[in-house]
Amino acid sequence: MRLGALLRAAGVADPAMPADSDGPEVAGVAHDSRQVGTGDVFCCVPGASHDGHDFAAAAVRAGACAVVGERPLDLPVPTVVVPSVRSTMALMAAAVHGWPSHQLELVGVTGTNGKTSVVHLLTSILAIDGRRTAAHGTLSGGRTTPEATDLQAMLGRWVLEGVETATVEVSSHALSQHRVDGTRFALVGFTNLSRDHLDFHGSMEDYEAAKARLFDGSFADRAVVVVDGAAGNRIAARAAEAGLAVTEVTQGPAEGSLRPDGVRFEWRGRSVEVATGGRFTIANALVAAELASALGVVEDRVVDGLATAPPVPGRFEPVLLVGGPTLVVDYAHTPDALSGALATAREVAGGRVLVVFGCGGERDAGKRPAMGAVAETGADLVVVTSDNPRGEPPGGVIADILSGMDRVPALIEPDRRQAIAGALALAEVDDLVLVAGRGHEDVQEAAGRLTPFDDRTVARQEWARMSSGGVAG
Q1: Distances (CA, A) of 219 to 37, 95, 214, 244, 289
Q2: How are strands ordered across the β-sheet holding 66-69?
Q3: pLDDT per residue over 392-403, tens digit each?
Q4: Is 434 helix (H, G, I), strand (E, B) or coil?
Q5: Taking a C-beta distance cutoff of 8 angstroms, is the pair 303, 441 a contact?
């Protein structure tokens, strides 16, 4: 596809190029100058810490045949100036890959909590239904939702591989940054909305507006929306007003039964079992079931798919400690998610509930006191530690958490390994220890370094050391 045709496909009028030519042949669309290949269009994405315009010359030297930016640049290749590089880049990326989302059945799931579980469970159902499936999200590594160029390339690969139905997590960042523009979804789903990412969005209103964009009629014609909260009701109303066919999902507060390693509940008169613990798993499984049904999966296969789904990694995941307390690892890193995890822990624990948690550095600092308050209310003993401090001093993050607590925690230990060991030392055999915040993650980021750290592995190691009479550390 030549540059002029590509720009027209992206809705860019009057591209800057010779009048007697449609411009150079385009091989691809790139936003990282280090990944530019010969014949690529380089998009100068303005970022929080780096401005793509500063790397345009390097991209041209690497072989870029044209540049798209938000201001004129003195370069020896066509330079196209647009109001928003991000929105233009997304459409160009979709076009250069042949609009791949139109060639498969694509499901997008958004919400503060539960996206990963819904995608995991839906993928299991679709596999039981005999479909060739693919999925991307938090468990895939990297960004929850890839940058537009990477997303469209991934969708294009799925089409070539014969994928029939695919599911992706759609983050609020991705919606705000136009990463999914140019993508057509067969179906979109919404789980819930609670405080998170306000360092990026600024307010809950802006955060909700970002999520709601997926339901404005430009991405899909059908939606499944959990309406247990006010935000869900607003999302459902917005979707209906935009002409989407909306399936509303609600979960009664006492619906279903819990155990540490799974849940049981009723759906359309059928008994359903899922091998992931937590009352929130019921809500996530209901969303997955309704999404699958909307995709034409018969009810018996929906039930079978949920029953055979492996546990969702790091989501209320039990860790066996021989002769020790019950220990569960959960990804809960927002006040609402931590509250839900602690409520489930309280329901299934034989004795006390202990919680080990921290908060991420360089992220929404305003939620830290709320996390401390939730932990203090929901647990019998609280251990405050580090999560992923990133470039922020752990002591400052912990101080923010403590500001939301009325009592001194049982233990304050910045070293997460020592904190887990300390909680195990405090726990009795009938107690439940909830290690929250990181879930499936297997590296910890601190002071610019990535260090291998998996809460599940560390808990096993520390219990083995303690059981053998060794010294923790």
Answers
A1: 30, 16, 6, 10, 21
A2: 28-30, 40-43, 66-69, 79-81
A3: 999 999 999 999
A4: strand
A5: no
